[in-house]
Fold this protein.
Amino acid sequence: MASAFFEKVYQVVRVIPEGKVTTYGHIARFLGESRSARVVGYAMNASHNDSSIPAHRVVNRSGVLTGKHFFAGSTLMQDLLESEGIKVIEDRVQSFENHLWDPIKHLNQEDFIQGLTG
DNA sequence: CACCTGACTGAAT
DNA sequence: AATTCAGCCAGGT
């Protein structure tokens, strides 16, 4: 079991809809830790312990696949995204904002955290 | 035990 | 507008 923050991150990542992506910053902000975007990324690094976490749907604020290096091979992350209908060119998600899934807009922040802790 | 690094980001210079 | 700095947490050296 990872830290509480890691768990929250995982919970959010797990509910990202197929064919959608979000960013480290959005997740951090959604969790009320807008300054911990970096830790979100670090949580993803540790997410290799759990295969149920679609880490490929998390990119940086520019839609760049900064974490692809941590996937097997050099195109697995891109391949996964493209298989969900997201076009990726040179490690960048095309029409990024169009595919962006903002947890702050699609989830109820308080309820989510309440349900998580309770 | 202290210090450094890392899938980030926003503010300041 | 581009570069630098600070903040967050965990794990490795």
